[in-house]
């Protein structure tokens, strides 16, 4: 009996170890694909930024058009925004049966909204715009770092990413209670994208924010960014739900996002930020940054400042070589003391005059940067953009440094190793180690850090010696049963208490193995096979490098190395191989037949030529994002003018000389239904036709 018990125990331990290995592999697949997609988004944005930097408009009209297309809303004037989003001019018809809002809001309004959204009703566009208008007015009065105290409420509840999953928010309120004077909430960013009810979540959170401004606190996340929304679904969701007034709603939301606070401090001891920190994170700097200037955190300010500097040098008659010493990069945003350069001799009047103009212009530009006012922005000083004389004596940072501060707290992730390095996996922010955490906590007299930004299987996770807590509130994020959601409650003792849940009813009917492994694993490998198929051509080239004799066969070790060299997902391919490669002969893989099997699997879903399907799988997300960037009014259609100007941008980058008539012929050929616009299907079809022609 004793031997039998030992054998059963050994068998059970091996079984549990295998399940845990499969679970971890499945998790790695999901996260690697998710982060690779985020990296693609940043690369795509950097590509457009590069085009903008190197494109020379031929006319002021062209310059204005390109600026409106790619530099969305960076200096929208208050009056212009209110006029554009005038909610009072929108009538609510008598046939409307949804909830009604009147301001100031009362708790009954919030209850009515929750009930309406449970019944799948939609709030009228007038009320949405009115709510956004009032929310923006409130947010403008808030500091960059909100302060919460447990002295005035029994406890503070911190929620992580919701990502458009309204059922999770309903469940949190059901379990924990609605916001009230005795129940404070901190929602730590990433309210939108991926899920299908992002707008409803915003409406609910903004409503409670206005009803209980001292008890409800919202932090900005990396998805509260209109450039990210173009790719991950929120822009599309708004336009589908509000076809008439969707553009106005998006414009207002875009502006509201940039006014969201950046962090929250609980009892001056617990810092709540969305992503993380870096070795340069400085709360004093974060408190003084004009956060509303950063409409999109993906778009840094360096380009704008360098352009402004170039204009100053142009006025002064300087060349770039004269203005910047060799081997040293100019720092246009810094506020140094006036240069002690010696004035040229009065004998050379022309040179002396130029030196005076240069010195005066530099000082004027320096002062403008100090108060962050350009000529075009000088008439729109608001509460947050005004600078008192006392502020002028304080420290001065460059816009690039300020941008990096925000980028780091929204995009960074912790790592177990010491130090701080660039987050190459996501493409933005950094990885910070326990030593960095310790220094920041010690510098600001903090006990620990709460952040979100990463999906965790149990909904929360400690790291860095329990000094960093990750909280994630979107359950079933990758697949039904993939993870729990969680929120954390802090009382006056600041000891965290966790509540976990799964909002989807189907998840509760699954067995433990189904929930943890089978169903989720199947979904992960399906996504991975799509990724492999999308890179068929590159994989063949990589396999051929190991197939010197052109036998069509390679070793499994070479297969694993070649796949990682192409996909760069950092996955344990040798461990995943049994799920991806079904048949091998003598430890060798016939790679062409393996790729053919992948193609058959994908073609069974879409009846398209294999080579074309590969290209579309690989580029569809980027193509859709490009389409939405060009489609400035979010109408779902690209006008001939939008296409014309965008093509001029591309052709200047690719050194293709094309006349205006040539571009007009091109756009007419893409407009298959001849309605004067290009929809996404025509855009995609044209892309496929180009590939066929190749």
TrEMBL record:
Keywords: Calcium, Hydrolase, Manganese, Metal-binding, Repeat. Its cofactor is Mn(2+). It catalyses: O-phospho-L-seryl-[protein] + H2O = L-seryl-[protein] + phosphate; O-phospho-L-threonyl-[protein] + H2O = L-threonyl-[protein] + phosphate. Its EC number is 3.1.3.16. Gene3D superfamilies: 3.60.21.10, EF-hand. The lineage of its organism: Eukaryota, Metazoa, Chordata, Craniata, Vertebrata. SMART domains: EFh, PP2Ac. This is Serine/threonine-protein phosphatase. Residues 317-331 have a biased composition (Basic and acidic residues). GO terms for biological process: detection of stimulus involved in sensory perception; negative regulation of MAPK cascade. Residues 534-569, 618-653, 658-693 form the EF-hand domain. PANTHER family: SERINE/THREONINE-PROTEIN PHOSPHATASE 5-RELATED, SERINE_THREONINE-PROTEIN PHOSPHATASE WITH EF-HANDS 2. Pfam families: EF-hand_7, Metallophos, PPP5. It comes from Dryobates pubescens. Residues 306-348 are annotated as: Disordered. GO terms for molecular function: calcium ion binding; Hsp90 protein binding; iron ion binding; manganese ion binding; protein serine/threonine phosphatase activity. Belongs to the PPP phosphatase family. InterPro entries: Calcineurin-like_PHP, EF-hand-dom_pair, EF_Hand_1_Ca_BS, EF_hand_dom, Metallo-depent_PP-like, PPP_dom, PPP_phosphatase, Ser/Thr-Pase_EF-hand_contain.
């Amino acid at each position: 009996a004793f031997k039998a018990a030992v054998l059963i125990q050994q068998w059970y331990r091996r079984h549990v170890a295998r399940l845990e290995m499969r679970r971890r592999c499945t998790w790695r697949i999901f996260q690697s694909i998710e982060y690779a997609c985020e990296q693609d988004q940043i690369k795509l944005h950097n590509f457009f930024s590069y085009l903008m930097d190197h494109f020379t408009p031929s006319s002021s009209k062209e310059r204005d058009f390109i600026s409106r297309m790619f530099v969305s809303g960076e200096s929208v004037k208050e009056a212009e925004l209110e006029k554009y989003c005038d909610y009072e001019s929108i009538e609510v018809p008598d046939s409307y049966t949804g909830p009604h809002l009147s301001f100031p809001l009362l708790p009954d309004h919030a209850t009515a909204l929750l009930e309406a959204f449970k019944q799948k009703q939609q709030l009228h566009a007038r009320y949405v715009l009115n709510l956004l208008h009032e929310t923006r007015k409130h947010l403008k009065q808030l500091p960059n770092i909100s302060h919460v105290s447990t002295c005035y409420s029994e406890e503070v509840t911190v929620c992580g990413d919701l990502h458009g999953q309204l059922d999770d928010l309903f469940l949190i309120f059901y379990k924990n209670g609605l916001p009230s004077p005795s129940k404070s909430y901190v929602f730590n960013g990433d309210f939108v994208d991926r899920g299908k009810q992002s707008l409803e979540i915003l409406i609910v959170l903004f409503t409670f924010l206005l009803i209980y401004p001292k008890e409800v606190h919202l932090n900005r996340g990396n998805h509260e960014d209109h450039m990210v929304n173009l790719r991950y679904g929120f822009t599309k969701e708004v336009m589908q739900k509000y076809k008439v007034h969707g553009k106005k709603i998006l414009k207002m939301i875009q502006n509201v996002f940039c006014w969201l606070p950046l962090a929250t401090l609980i009892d001056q001891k617990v810092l709540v930020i969305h992503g993380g920190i870096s070795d340069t994170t400085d709360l004093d700097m974060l408190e003084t940054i004009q956060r509303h200037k950063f409409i999109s955190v993906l778009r840094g300010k360096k380009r704008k400042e360098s352009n402004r500097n170039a204009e100053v040098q142009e006025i002064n008659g300087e060349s770039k070589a004269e203005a910047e010493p060799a081997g040293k990069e100019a720092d246009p945003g810094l506020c140094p003391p006036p240069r002690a350069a010696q004035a040229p001799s009065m004998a050379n009047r022309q040179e002396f005059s130029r030196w005076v103009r240069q010195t005066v212009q530099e000082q004027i530009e320096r002062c403008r940067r100090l108060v962050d006012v350009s000529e075009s922005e000088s008439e729109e000083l608001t509460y947050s953009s005004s600078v008192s004389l006392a502020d002028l004596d304080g420290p001065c940072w460059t816009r690039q440094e300020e941008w990096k501060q925000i980028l780091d707290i929204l995009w960074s992730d912790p790592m177990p190793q010491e130090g701080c390095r660039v987050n190459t996996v996501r493409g933005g922010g950094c990885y910070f180690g326990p030593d960095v955490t310790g220094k920041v906590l010690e510098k600001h007299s903090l006990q620990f850090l709460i952040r979100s930004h990463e999906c965790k299987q149990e909904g929360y996770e400690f790291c860095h010696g329990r000094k960093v807590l990750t909280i994630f509130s979107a359950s079933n994020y990758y697949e039904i049963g993939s993870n729990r959601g969680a929120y954390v409650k802090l009382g006056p003792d600041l000891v965290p208490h966790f509540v976990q849940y799964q909002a989807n009813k189907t998840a509760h009917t699954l067995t433990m193995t189904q929930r943890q492994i089978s169903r989720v694993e199947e979904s992960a490998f399906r996504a991975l096979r799509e990724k492999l198929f999308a890179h068929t051509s590159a994989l063949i080239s990589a396999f051929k490098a190991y197939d010197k004799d052109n036998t069509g066969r390679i070793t499994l070790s070479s297969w694993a190395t070649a796949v990682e060299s192409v996909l760069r997902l950092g996955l344990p391919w040798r461990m995943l191989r049994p799920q991806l490669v079904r048949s091998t002969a003598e430890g060798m893989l016939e790679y062409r037949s393996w790729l053919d099997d992948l193609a058959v699997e994908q073609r069974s879903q879409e009846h398209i030529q294999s080579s074309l399907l590969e290209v579309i799988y690989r580029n569809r997300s980027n193509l859709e994002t490009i389409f939405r960037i060009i489609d400035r009014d979010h109408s779902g259609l690209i006008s001939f003018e939008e296409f014309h100007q965008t093509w001029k941008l591309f052709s200047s980058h690719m050194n293709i000389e094309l006349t205006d008539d040539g571009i007009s012929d091109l756009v007419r050929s893409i407009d298959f239904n001849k309605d004067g616009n290009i929809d996404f299907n025509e855009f995609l079809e044209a892309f496929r036709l180009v590939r066929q022609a190749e």
